[in-house]
Specification:
This protein is of the alpha/beta class. The chain is 50% helix and 15% strand. Helix 2 links the parallel strand 2 and strand 3. Helix 5 packs parallel to helix 8 and helix 9 runs antiparallel to helix 10. The protein is elongated, with a radius of gyration of 25 Å.
């Protein structure tokens, strides 16, 4: 890697990283070699350390000393992948910006194809997962359900989508400056924006280093954020439950009235128990759905920053 510097690189690569010390150096060097071979002009790599507990950021700093096109941002704590991606996009200066994971499950070998599609006129190049051979059966089932639910209710296609994308500068400016919401779902936003889109398809590679940093709860939180951010359909479930309760109540009332008219004894015990359980369940589900929306509104109203930068290397903030 040489040290030719250009204040306006053609391509910026944004790599969010959290405790990726085992493989971050290999990832950076691989991406750098590919960019050097396919970019007719300069490039930069911005690694956003999302509050790692290991020496991920120190390794980035060391590589930046060897090649100033390699840059690093250290966030003050773990803000999550969405915040790290936004930090990288906000500091990237390229005419087009790549986003990819640090564990190389997003194969860098597809970068030249993505750049070619951008040069051919695509504003957004989505890398779509062709297979999930590395995922367990449970992970595949969960991903299928969540992606189809969001796509069906939210009106955006995120089936097998990933954060492996190439975005034109105007798309990045929209995401950073014109979409102010705090609760973000990067994959959904890039599909919602529109413009000229193109696709490449890849097989998910085996993860480098240790196990995934995504827990079940963090994936569940991301799925809830994605669903709530793009559709009000869950709120309509509350209305549906209300109508269902009305129908149920009408049926029970009709049975009681019929028994009264015909002078028949109304046992009613089992019916009452069932009604109480159903009504209680509907009420709790409705309160939970409404509560999720209220919680997201609360986060938006607080208007806290998406991320806080603790340190940076190679970044010009002027």
């Amino acid at each position: 890697m040489n040290e030719t510097i250009n204040p306006r690189p053609v391509i910026s690569a944004v790599i969010p990283a959290y405790n990726e010390s085992q493989g971050i150096e290999t990832t950076i060097k691989q991406v750098a070699d590919i960019l050097t071979g396919c970019v007719n002009g300069d490039w930069e790599i911005i690694v956003v350390d999302d509050g790692s507990n290991d020496d991920t950021y120190q390794q980035v700093c060391a590589l930046s000393q060897l090649d100033t096109r390699i840059k690093g941002i250290a966030l003050s704590r773990n803000f999550g992948k969405e915040g790290a991606l936004l930090a990288g996009l906000a500091h990237a200066t390229g005419a087009a910006i790549l986003t990819l994971d640090a564990d190389r499950q997003h194969p860098p070998i597809f970068i030249p194809d993505m750049i070619a599609k951008w040069q051919a006129g695509a504003d957004i190049v989505h890398a779509v997962k062709r297979s999930r051979t590395q995922d367990s059966v449970g992970q595949k089932a969960a991903a299928y359900c969540v992606n189809h639910l969001i796509s069906g209710l939210g009106g955006i296609d995120v089936k097998n989508s990933s954060d492996f994308k190439l975005l034109d500068r105007k798309i990045v400016n929209i995401i950073v400056y014109q979409l102010p919401e705090k609760q973000r779902f990067f994959r959904g936003l890039t599909s919602w924006i529109g413009f000229n889109e193109d696709y490449i398809y890849f097989d998910v590679a085996e993860r480098e280093g240790d196990e995934s940093k995504w827990s079940f709860l963090s994936l569940l939180e991301l799925a809830i954020t994605a669903l709530i951010s793009f559709t009000c359909a869950p709120l309509r479930i509350v209305t549906f439950l209300g109508v269902l309760t009305l129908v149920l109540g009408f049926g029970v009332a009709s049975e009681a009235l019929w028994s009264l008219i015909n002078n028949q004894t109304v046992s009613g015990y089992n019916t009452i128990i069932i009604c109480v359980l159903l009504l209680g369940s509907f009420i709790m589900i409705s309160l939970g759905i409404i509560g999720e929306y209220v919680a997201k509104i609360y986060d938006e109203v607080k208007a806290r920053p998406h991320y806080l930068v603790k340190n940076s290397v190679g970044i010009d903030d002027n």
